[in-house]
C-alpha cells in the first residue's frame, strides 16, 4: 500500500459523495459537513500556495484543538506544506526554541495565544494568522478570501513530509520528528481498524493536536468518514456530558483519564450506552479499574503503545485480552491480570525485537533489553538532526525506542524501564534534562537530577534531587516557583529533595536508578 494511491492525507475530507452532506466535525456549538470541510481545506491549500508556502513550505500551528486547526492540517497537506503542530503549553523560552528550529514561513495561532507569541523573539518577522482574532490578520477572513478550486496533488510522493511533531531526548532540546505520507498510510488505517471505526462512528477527541495520539485521532476519524467531536475540556464531568449529548461511540484517552471517567460521581447516572470502544495508552490499568469500566460501560477496551517517531500505534492489547472472568479458573485469571500489565502484541506490518543494551545482540523471549521497532510507520528522521537521527535509526531500518522491556513467549511486550529517563505524567512526556537545565539557573543550585516517581493520579510526577551551592540556602517551594518561571507547569517538579551529593558511576554519570529505587521499590512495572 502506498500513501498517494490508497491513503492520501490531502484527500481525507473527500469521501464518497454520499457522505458530503454528513457532519464531519463538531466543535462546541459549531459543526461543518464533509463538503464544507473539503472546501475549506482547498481554500487553505490555495492560500498557502499563494504565499509561496506550497510544496516544501513550512507552517507552524500554535493552539488548542479546534475546527480551524483541522482546516490547517488538511489544507497544509493538500498544499504539500509541512505542518508543525506546536505544544501550546510550552513556556515562551521553550516556544521560542521550537519556532526558531522549525523555521516556519507562517504561524497560525488562536486568539488565546497571540499575546504569548508576541513575546517570542524567534517569531518576530514571521507572518501570523489568528483564529478568532479581531485584527487585520484573521484566519477566517484570510481563508474565506482564497479560491476553492481543488489544488493539483498528483505530484506528491510517499516520502514527502506531512507532519513535524516535536519530541525531546536526553539532550533536553526538542527534536522535530518528520512524519511522511507513508508513515501515516501505514499506521492510521490499522489504528482505525483497532477502534472499529466506520461512517456511523462518533469520536470524541480530548487529546491535544500536538500529540501524535491527538493528530492521529483527527486524521483517522476523517479517513473513516466518521464524525469528529472536538472538546478541550478533559475533565471527567465534561466528557460524560459530551458522550451523552453527542452519542459518542469512541474515546481515545490517556490511562489517567480513563480512570477519572470510571471513578467520576456522575458515571453511574450518565447514559454511556453509545460507547463501543475506549482506547487508552501511556500507562497500564489495574484489574479493578478494568472491572469498573466493564461494569459501568460494558464496551470494548483496548490499550495502545506507540511513539511520535512511529506515527502512533505499534502494539495493541486488544479487547479479548481485557475481557476476562475474575471468577474464572485461578490460572486463567492470573494470566489475564499479568497481560494487563503488558502493551499487547505488535500490529500487522510491525516488527519488534529486544536487543542487549550493551552489544545490540537480539535477545530471546523473556530476556530484558531495549525495545526496537521496524515498520513503514517510522519517521524519516529528525529535522536537521542527522546525528540524532543516526543514533535512533539503524542502517537496516530499526528504530531504537529507548524503552527497556521484554517479549514473552506469546509475543506480548512488557515495558520495564526506559533508557532515556523520560517521565510520563498524565500522558505528557517530561524530559529530565529540560527540567534540570531550568533549575541550574538558580544560584543556590550546584547540582540537580530530576527523576520520575509514582503518582496515584498522574502515573508519574517529576521530583528534583538537589545539591545546594556552598553556603546557599533555598527551599523546595522556592525552587518549584523558580521552575514555573521557565517551564510549562506540568514539567515542574512537584517535590524537591536536598542531598549532599548525587550518586555517580566511575565515569561521572548520575545514577538515576539509585535515586528512583526508594520510590519504585516493590513495583513490578517501572514505566508508565
Radius of gyration: 23 Å
Return the structural class. Answer: alpha/beta
CATH level 4 superfamily of the largest domain: ANL, N-terminal domain
Q: Compute the number of strand runs.
A: 25
Instruction: Name the CATH architecture of the largest domain.
Output: 3-Layer(aba) Sandwich
Q: Residue ranges: pLDDT <50 for 5 or more in a row? A: 1-5
Strand arrangement, largest sheet?
Answer: 2-1-10-9-11-12-13-14-15
How many H/I helical runs? 17
Largest sheet: 9 strands, mixed
CATH fold assignment of the largest domain: Rossmann fold
Q: Provide the domain count.
A: 3
Helix content: 25-40%
Determine the N-to-C terminus distance.
33 Å
Strand content: 25-35%
CATH class of the largest domain: Alpha Beta
Q: Write down the overall geometry.
A: globular
Mean pLDDT comes to 89
In terms of topology, how is this protein built?
Blueprint lengths: L2 H4 L16 E5 L2 E4 H17 L7 E5 L4 H13 L2 E5 L5 H11 L3 E5 L3 H5 L9 E4 L7 H6 L16 E7 L7 E6 H15 L6 E4 L6 H12 L3 E4 L5 H11 L3 E5 H9 L13 E5 L5 H10 L3 E8 L4 E6 L1 H4 L7 H10 L5 E2 L4 E5 L13 E6 L6 E2 L3 H7 L6 E9 L5 E6 L4 E3 L2 E3 L1 H8 L5 E11 L3 E10 L7 H9 L10 E4 L13 H9 L8
Parallel strand pairs: 1-10, 3-4, 3-5, 4-7, 5-6, 9-10, 9-11, 11-12, 12-13, 24-25
Antiparallel strand pairs: 1-2, 7-8, 8-18, 13-14, 14-15, 16-17, 17-19, 19-20, 21-22, 23-24
Helix pairs in contact: 2-3, 7-8, 9-10, 10-11
Amino acid at each position: 500500500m502506498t500513501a498517494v494511491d490508497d491513503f492520501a492525507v490531502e484527500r481525507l475530507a473527500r469521501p464518497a459523495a454520499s457522505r458530503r452532506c454528513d457532519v464531519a466535525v463538531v466543535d462546541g456549538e459549531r459543526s461543518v459537513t464533509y463538503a464544507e470541510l473539503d472546501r475549506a481545506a482547498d481554500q487553505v491549500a490555495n492560500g498557502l500556495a499563494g504565499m509561496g508556502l506550497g510544496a516544501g513550505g513550512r507552517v507552524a500551528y500554535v493552539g488548542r484543538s479546534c475546527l480551524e486547526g483541522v482546516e490547517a492540517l488538511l489544507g497544509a497537506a493538500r498544499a504539500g506544506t509541512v505542518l508543525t503542530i506546536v505544544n501550546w503549553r510550552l513556556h515562551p523560552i521553550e516556544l521560542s526554541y521550537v519556532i526558531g528550529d522549525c523555521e516556519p514561513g507562517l504561524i497560525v495561532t488562536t486568539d488565546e495565544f497571540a499575546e504569548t507569541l508576541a513575546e517570542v523573539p524567534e517569531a518576530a518577522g514571521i507572518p501570523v494568522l489568528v483564529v478568532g482574532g479581531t485584527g487585520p490578520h484573521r484566519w477566517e477572513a484570510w481563508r474565506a478570501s482564497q479560491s476553492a478550486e481543488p489544488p493539483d496533488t498528483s505530484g506528491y510522493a510517499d516520502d514527502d513530509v506531512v507532519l513535524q511533531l516535536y519530541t525531546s531526548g536526553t539532550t533536553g532540546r526538542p527534536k522535530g520528528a518528520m512524519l511522511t505520507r507513508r508513515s501515516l498510510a501505514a499506521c492510521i488505517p490499522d489504528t482505525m481498524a483497532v477502534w472499529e471505526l466506520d461512517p456511523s462512528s462518533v469520536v470524541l477527541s480530548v487529546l491535544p493536536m500536538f500529540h501524535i495520539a491527538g493528530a492521529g485521532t483527527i486524521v483517522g476519524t476523517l479517513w473513516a468518514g466518521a464524525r469528529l467531536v472536538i472538546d478541550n475540556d478533559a475533565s471527567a464531568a465534561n466528557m460524560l456530558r459530551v458522550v451523552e449529548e453527542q452519542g459518542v461511540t469512541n474515546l481515545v484517552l490517556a490511562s489517567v483519564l480513563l480512570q477519572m471517567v470510571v471513578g467520576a460521581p456522575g458515571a453511574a447516572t450518565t447514559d454511556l450506552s453509545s460507547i463501543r470502544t475506549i482506547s487508552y495508552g501511556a500507562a497500564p490499568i489495574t484489574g479493578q479499574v478494568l472491572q469498573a469500566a466493564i461494569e459501568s460501560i460494558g464496551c470494548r477496551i483496548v490499550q495502545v503503545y506507540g511513539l511520535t517517531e512511529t506515527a502512533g500505534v505499534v502494539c495493541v492489547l486488544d479487547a479479548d485480552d481485557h475481557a476476562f472472568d475474575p471468577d474464572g479458573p485461578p490460572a486463567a485469571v492470573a494470566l489475564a491480570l499479568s497481560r494487563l500489565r503488558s502493551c499487547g502484541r505488535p500490529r500487522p506490518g510491525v516488527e519488534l525485537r529486544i536487543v542487549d543494551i550493551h552489544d545490540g545482540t537480539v535477545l530471546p523471549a523473556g530476556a530484558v533489553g531495549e525495545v526496537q521497532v521496524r515498520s513503514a510507520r517510522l519517521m524519516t528522521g529528525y529535522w536537521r538532526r542527522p546525528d540524532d537521527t543516526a543514533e535512533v535509526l539503524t542502517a537496516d531500518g530499526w528504530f531504537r525506542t529507548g524503552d527497556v522491556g521484554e517479549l514473552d513467549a506469546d509475543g506480548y511486550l512488557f515495558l520495564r524501564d526506559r533508557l532515556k529517563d523520560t517521565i510520563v505524567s498524565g500522558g505528557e512526556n517530561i524530559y529530565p534534562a529540560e527540567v534540570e537545565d531550568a533549575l541550574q539557573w538558580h544560584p543556590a543550585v550546584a547540582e540537580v537530577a530530576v527523576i520520575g516517581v509514582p503518582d496515584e493520579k498522574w502515573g508519574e510526577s517529576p521530583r528534583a534531587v538537589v545539591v545546594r551551592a556552598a553556603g546557599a540556602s533555598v527551599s523546595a517551594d522556592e525552587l518549584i516557583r523558580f521552575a514555573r518561571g521557565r517551564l510549562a507547569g506540568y514539567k515542574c517538579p512537584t517535590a524537591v529533595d536536598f542531598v549532599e551529593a548525587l550518586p555517580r558511576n566511575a565515569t561521572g554519570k548520575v545514577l538515576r536508578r539509585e535515586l528512583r529505587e526508594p520510590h519504585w521499590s516493590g513495583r513490578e512495572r517501572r514505566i508508565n
